[in-house]
Structures are given as C-alpha cells and as structure tokens.
Amino acid sequence: MNRAQAERIYGMRELTRILTLTPRRTAQLRRLGLLRGDTGYTFRDLLALRAAGALLDAGAGVRQIRQALEALRSRNPGLEQPLAEVRLVLEGGRLLAQSDRVKFEPRTGQTVLDLDTPSLEEVAAATLVTGLVRPMAPPVEQAEMWFERASEWDTDPAQWEDAIGAYQRVVAIDPTYAAAWNNLGLLLHRMGRYDEAQVAYGAALEQDGHCCEAVYNLGSLAEDRSDLEEAVRCYRRALGMSPDYADAHFNLAGVLSRLGRAADAVAHWQRYLDLDAGSPWARIARAHLEVLDPPGGQLE
C-alpha cells in the first residue's frame, strides 16, 4: 500500500475533539491559515495545529507566528508545513526556529547564541550603573495584545464599546492589520453604525485584497441597507475568493430568493447543504428548498 493510500484524513469534528478546540482557538488557527475547511486534514496538518496551539498557549501572538511562518516559507520554498517540519520556540518574547541545537531568527536567519542568563543581582547592578529600564513592547506585540483583548470583549455586547476602542488602538499602531479593520467593522455594523462599518470593511480590503470575510460583511451590510443587488455582487465576489464559503452561499441564496431568482437560489441552498449539512442553519436551507423546489416540482 503506498503512502497516499495509507494516509489518514481528518475532518473538522475530529480535530475539534483531538485538539480540544475552543471557538477562540479555532478563530486563531483560521487566522494562521491552518484551518481552511471542514475536511482534508492530514496527520502532518494535525501536528502543525498542535504545535501552533502550544505556541499560542506559551504566549506567542497570532501575528507573530504568522510572520515567522511567512519568513520560513520565503527562505525555504520547499517547506510544505513549516510548523510540522521546523520547531519554533518562544524565548524572551521572541519566536525562534530551532534546528540541530542551533536557534535562529526566522525573518533574518541570524543565529541566536544561548548566553548564560545573568543572576537577578547582576541585572539589578547593571541597571543601577547604566540607568537601563525595561523596554516598551515593540509595536507589533502591542498591536497583537490589543487585538487579543478586543477579541475577548467583542463576544459580550456589554463590552462592545471597549472592544471597538481596542480595535481602534490596533489599527492606530498598525494600520495594515486587516483582521482588526474587519472585526472593527463587524462591531460597528452590529451597533447600527453603518457608514463607519463600511469604512472599516473597506480599509480591511485595502490592506488585504483577499480578505473574503470583509467582502462577505460588505454584502451583509448591503442587505441591511436594502441594496440587494449590491449584496449579490459582494457575496458572489466572496465566493470567487473562497468557493466553499458556506455562509456566503447561505446569504446569497436568501437574497436571490427575495429577488425572485429561484433557480439561482436553489443552487446555493444546495451547495450550502453540501458544505454544512449538520448545522442548525441547514434546517432553514432545507425549508427554503422545499418551498422553491418541492419534490416533483419544476422551476420556471
């Protein structure tokens, strides 16, 4: 039996059980690009997910890990799954790659020497002599800290204002942080601040032209503003970026139904069920299908 035949494939439910994934951890792994759908995960993917979880538990930020992975892929294009092939360790707030007992900085490739850690007394003495003080956290770490804090707050409506303030601090520190712009837009959207939400979603797309979540959210915003044709355009654009985006199929089917385009709607309801048949929303999709395309019925 060859390797391709013997290799086991894991589904999302198995990963959730094996790795004890919480909604927050799932979101972090999606931002790292390690979770991409419901099926198709190999044992190597499982190892990478486990390694990423360990780094996050140790205090590494999502952006910090993502930058290290991008650097490793750039330096060695042959790496298929860096987290499964290269050991990353967090030391003193820095994420280092380790190979053959040698540690190096992923972005520069510079070797890091393991120097003896001075005693507390020596550090204190040096501080008195030189006037050294504890350095402030680098901007990237500050942005990640505020993003993590905002992510905790944005699940509680009572803390939405605090979450908005935190996301605004993230983009003030790092205006290129697309995920923060998108999440900021989502909160503003929920609070009915539509114009501000549209600006935030647009900023997310300016920083990351492939941010399909921002395009999807623009479609939802257009729906809320009763601009159904714009909603269709946005949902189709999101599906062009990510054809298996289940929520986009669901929302697009609903808008097409409202526009009287039954045949197009049926195709997207059916595709949604292919992708997410076990969710509570699947019952809604099936109910729509029974109305639009009953057994033995014929669409016009």
Write up this protein.
The chain is mainly alpha-helical. The chain has three domains: 6-112, no CATH class; 136-209, Tetratricopeptide repeat domain (Serine Threonine Protein Phosphatase 5, Tetratricopeptide repeat, Alpha Horseshoe), CATH 1.25.40.10; 216-300, Serine Threonine Protein Phosphatase 5, Tetratricopeptide repeat (Alpha Horseshoe), CATH 1.25.40. It is built from 16 helices and four strands. It has a four-stranded antiparallel beta sheet with strand order 1-2-3-4. A hairpin with a 2-residue loop joins β2 (94-99) and β3. It is globular and about 60 Å long. It starts with a helix and ends in an 8-residue tail after the last helix. 31% of the residues are buried. Residues 1-6, 113-120 and 126-138 have low confidence and may be disordered.
Low-pLDDT runs: 1-6, 113-120, 126-138
Q: Give the count of helical stretches.
A: 16
Mean pLDDT: 80
The largest sheet, given as strand count, sense and whether it forms a barrel, is: 4 strands, antiparallel
The overall number of domains is 3
Structural class estimated from helices and strands:
mainly alpha
Shape: globular
Q: What portion of the residues fall into strands of 2 or more residues?
A: 5-15%
Q: What is the N-to-C order of secondary-structure elements (H for helix, E for strand)?
A: HHHHHHEEEEHHHHHHHHHH
Number of strands: 4
Q: How far apart lie the N and C ends?
A: 51 Å
The largest sheet has its strands arranged as 1-2-3-4
Percent range of helical residues = 55-70%
Radius of gyration: 23 Å
